[in-house]
Design brief:
Elements: H1 2-12, E1 17-19, H2 29-34, E2 39-41, E3 48-52, E4 57-65, H3 70-77, E5 81-84, E6 95-100, H4 107-110, E7 128-133, E8 136-149, H5 154-157, E9 163-171, E10 178-186
Parallel strand pairs: 1-2, 4-5, 6-9
Antiparallel strand pairs: 3-4, 3-7, 5-6, 7-8, 8-10, 9-10
Keywords: Hydrolase
GO molecular function: hydrolase activity
Protein name: Sortase family protein
Length: 187
């Protein structure tokens, strides 16, 4: 609920997150609350991270996480967004980069990244997602958003003919009933 309220508050006053390499002028949380100036965010790292300006996501990506090993992915998700070990790495070549993360309510059990994808459903067609990998930036544009049954593996195993990014989380947040899947293409 906190994420939802913060998102609506920022939208109501027209404030946005803006990707910037220069965050020397850091804004305090209080200043962000009263200001309408854009909030600059720099990627947490350029080795492997994801930034989604629209919803304020700026998080490291943990590479090569096995999706069938619950203990392994539970541990990875405490440290950021997980990259499925069976998926591709970001590149300009055709392939599916599959990243998954929590949309949960129990941060006390799952760690500070337990709600990192709570607002993923706020993304619309055309929104941009930035993935940083080995010093390079890959910019993707959202082309699809859908809810699938909880155990549907199609988004992970589908064949693609262009560089594709798939983001997946639980839906509705705090449950494991379904999966929200956002698909984006490299632009």
């Amino acid at each position: 609920m906190r994420d939802e309220i913060w998102y609506k508050f920022m939208r109501a006053k027209g404030q946005k997150f803006v990707l910037s390499e220069n965050t020397a002028q850091k804004q305090s949380p209080f200043a962000a609350l009263i200001s309408t100036r854009p909030i600059s965010i720099a990627p947490v790292n350029r080795d492997f991270s994801v930034v989604i300006e629209k919803i304020g996501v700026n998080v490291p990506v943990i590479a090569d996480v096995p999706v069938t090993d619950e203990a392994a992915y539970a541990q990875a998700l405490k440290n950021g967004v997980a990259h499925a070990s069976t998926s591709q790495y970001p590149s300009k070549l055709p392939g599916n980069v599959y990243l998954f993360a929590h949309a949960s309510l129990n941060f006390w059990q799952l760690g500070k990244y337990s709600s990192v994808f709570n607002l993923l459903r706020k993304l619309d067609l055309g929104d941009r997602i930035h993935v940083f990998y080995k010093g390079d930036e890959f910019v993707y544009e959202v082309v699809n958003k859908e809810v699938m049954s909880g155990w549907n593996t199609y988004p992970l195993t589908r064949a693609v003919i262009e560089p594709t990014l798939t983001l997946q989380t639980c839906d509705p947040p705090g449950t494991t009933l379904n999966r929200l899947v956002v698909t984006a293409k490299l632009i």
